[in-house]
Amino acid sequence: MTGLLAVITVSHYLAVGAFFFVTGVLCMATKRNALGVLMGIELVLNGANLNFIAFGSKYLRSESLGLDGQLMALFVIILAAAEAAVALAIALSFYNAHSTIDVDQGDELKG
Amino acid sequence: MATANREQIIELDVRTDELLVNMGPQHPSTHGVLRLVLKTDGEIVTHVEPHIGYLHRCAEKIGENLTPRQWIPYTDRMDYLAAMNMNLGWSLCVEKLLQYELPEKARHLRVIIAELGRIASHLVGMGAYGLDLGTFSPFLYAFREREKILNLFEEACGARLTNSYITPGGATADLPPGWLEKCEAFLDQFEPVIAEYHALLTTNAIFIQRTAGIGVMSAEMAIDYGCTGPVLRGSGVDHDLRRDGEERYTEMYDGYAFEVIVQKDGHYPRDHDYPPVPPEAVLGDCWHRFYVRMLEVVQAIDIIRQGIEFYRSAEGDWGHPIKLNTKLPKGEVYLETECPRGQMGFYLVSDGSAIPWRTRARSSCFCNLSVTEELCRGCLLADVPAIVGSLDIVMGEIDR
Amino acid sequence: MAEFFAQYMPAGVAYTLTALISAALLLGVVGVGALFFIWAERKVAGRIQDRLGPTRTGGKFGWLQSLADGIKLLTKEDIAPADADKTLFRLAPYVSLAPSYAALLALPFADGWVGWEINTAMFFLLAVLGLEVFGVILAGYASGSKWSLFGGMRQAAQVVSYEVPLGMCGVIPVFLCGTMSLTTIGNMQAGWFTNWLIFHDPFTFLVFWVYFTCAVASVNRAPFDLAEAESELVAGFHTEYSGLRWSFFFMAEYNSMLVVSGLAAVAFFGGWNGPVPIFASWKAAGGGWEIVANLAGCINFIMKAVLGVMLMIWVRWTLPRLRIDQVITTCLKYCVPLAAFCFVGALSWQLFDLPSPNDWVPAERAGRAAVREPWARGTTGSTQSSAGTSARLAQGSEVHR
Amino acid sequence: MLLGTFDLHTFLFVLFALTACLFAAGVLFSSNIVRMAFHLVLSLGSSAGLFFLAGAEFVGAMQLMIYVGGTLVLLVFGVMLTAQHRFLEMRTNAGEWVLSLVVGGALLMVLLQAAFSVSQWNTPNTERSQLAVDESKAATPIGAALAGVRVDKLQQKDAHLRAGMSGYLMPFVIVSMHLLVVLVGAAYLARPRMAVRNPKGGG
Lengths: 111, 400, 401, 203
Description:
Number of domains of chain B: 1
CATH architecture of chain A: Orthogonal Bundle
Number of helices of chain B: 17
Shape of chain A: elongated
Radius of gyration of chain B: 21 Å
Order of helices and strands of chain A: HHH
Structural class of chain B: mainly alpha
Largest sheet of chain A: none
Strand order of the largest sheet of chain B: 1-2-3
Structural class of chain A: mainly alpha
CATH superfamily of chain B: Cytochrome-c3 Hydrogenase, chain B
CATH class of chain A: Mainly Alpha
Largest sheet of chain B: 3 strands, antiparallel
CATH topology of chain A: Helix Hairpins
CATH topology of chain B: Cytochrome-c3 Hydrogenase, chain B
CATH class of chain B: Mainly Alpha
Number of domains of chain A: 1
Number of helices of chain A: 3
Oligomer: heterotetramer
Distance between the termini of chain A: 53 Å
């Protein structure tokens, strides 16, 4: 254990990112609640962000992505916010139409 | 404008399920033990149902087992914030049955005391209204002044809250020596202080936002529901029993110069002395009800000053109470007086014995409260205390 | 401090020790701050209302009153309603307290006296302060009481909308100073009080009041205390709480008040710099003199922050409460446009180099621009952290041309 | 011996990584929407801590403000739309769970294998102690990059590489427009379908 964590490297960040990604994917797959699915998406995006940050960090690698990593992460965050807004709007109008936010009920092509 | 506002508020982005909320009887702003069952959709109140009866003490039934003078302490406990006015209403009712002629001095004593009671009551109404809207300090400022009135009461009759001072026949005692001077000193000190309340409440921008255009009650509606007192006059109905009442009551105010506090042609009497009506305010809204009370306080000061002069120059006796076991003549009698919260009526049926066969009280707050349901429908949750507070109810009087 | 310890022990231990000491000191600020402010609130409220307030506990001014209150709260039963979501209900007070404590981390008390010298301190502070609302929402939801739920929902709507103008107000000092580091922003306002950002131009003067309004709203104080509106919602989100958990909400509230006032002190009122530069020469002397100067600066800062809190207390005991729609309207109709207007105005003022009161003060500094924009000119000024990048940035702009 | 090898950075990393993973799993395994949101917030907050550790302070603060703030709105909507008991717990059946856990576990294995396989990623930065504190702080360069100047590439000797350093001005503008469009679109999507009139006011 001490050997594995002796010095933190990019790989450790990637591992955490991978865990986030998998959790997020599973969330999207298993949740029946529309908001739960949305949370899964946020987790996935956050996992990707962790990778960007790790590759961009000068602490972890001398040959880092540099600023690009952080900027990418920044754009991901912004897009995640935009995505959340749209998804919420969809969830809302879904709720207005069906009086539920169970995505399994949304099996008809009608708003 | 008010209706436009209301429609705007009730447009919903998201329809959520209706929530049934129990406001009271243990709630900070239900003035005692009023219970309101609210149906809310988010912050919007869709239905209000007042439940009363938590303070019912069978006061009227007790009255049928006591002589009129013995029942006086029970009237204290009806509108416990204006006990003097309750005493006065019942005393006048009994005197009407007895055809009792009141000495001149007693008449002016009663006017002074009743109007002091009105000030004391309105001070609570005003302070508690501030509390309903979330400001604490005016409440304590109001109580500071009310304490001085209660001190005066204590000196006159020995009690502060439940006075039992005015009785059929006059009062339990004459005003003690030096009392009038103290009362005048109080008035001189109190009159400039009113500006503080206007600064903290009446003209405060947030206060105006919270009250103007909220809970608008038209004159027709006020009359239909049987509203009385400042609630009625706040809707612009020119009606005050001190001027329009029965002769038995109005003759008490003979010789006094006063105007009914009501907005006529867009103006209140002597309104140049007071903050102007804000443009947002609609006649009949919470702001106007509050403002009417504030102006009545000033008017009461004026009446008391006149009363003190009359009392000083009055000849004769201060009016001794009738004997405890005075036989009441057979018959029935009903008399309404203008109490701080509205018209308080007492009804008495006598079978000729010393104990009334039937006593009933007509409560002003009961009628005033009945408009809650209609006024609160469609308002926001925060408006409910604002509207109920502007009606200035006292549960002791409603439940009796 | 870490360097000092590192002389005697391994670096890892030294840094940990430093971190622990900083954390303990900041915890002291939370604790003592809450005790003091609760006492002050009661005392000030008493005086405002023509009362005395606490008079006996602990001597003449009742200054031990809040300690006594604390002991009383400790001994009270910790109740969780039957309908409550017990775990979340128990956690909510801590969730509320933690961000407000974390915000202290980035707040500098004097030049360099800061728990965590972070480059984006202003941003971090505003972000972390916004998190405090979570505890309130959780408390509202988990209590299983309708009143609490109302309080939590109100708080969420309110805080989310007030983040916007608050952020805009916070951005103005950042732009004027060219850095988000609060230490640097504070140092740039050294000199006479005319160099304070609030006196920089009319727009910064105006925006301070917008900031103050939004800060009051974001820390949930009257007249924006809708989440706990006692006349409507009984006690709002903390209706069902008792004992120590209840008091945690208040520690969080008072601490947040201190943080937003401290932020205002740094961003608008010169931070640890007094109105008159008395300690400037001491600071330059270094060594023990510098520590004395910093201590004076720290006292100065705390006095400014406390003044802000007192202003909030004063406002609370004077004004009625707004309604929820009016709160949101105040934010969207007044605060946001005003902040945006001031943003443009303040930046234009800086851009066109319009006069500022500081120009008329006989000071050793050449002019306000030299003080404000060391990075754009490639001079390091009193900043350390942004110096390197600034030089490169200056170079970059030349390359661009 | 333990004290000698003790590294605050490692300790904090382990702390933040563990809480982040723990609460991410909490999101997955809780069925109550409010608890899910609560776990998500803690998870995202912990990953903001990881960002700070990696030296990305601006992004970390951004994460706290936007991501966590966005989740706050989620939470509110969760409560608003699903506070009633019939919605509060929407359970997934056991079969789906087994299937998804198997798939997810396999995916995680693959990703972990990939994460630790590249030796360049696996070797710590040896010059780390030589890094000036200033080097990692990126708020100003990020701002400059968004405004179109890449200060970190100024030292780039290669003229071709330097030519491409106009920064992120264009993406920044695009994202801004995107956000604006999204806001308008979301407002349109969520527009009130039913205007409930005041029963008294008629209409």
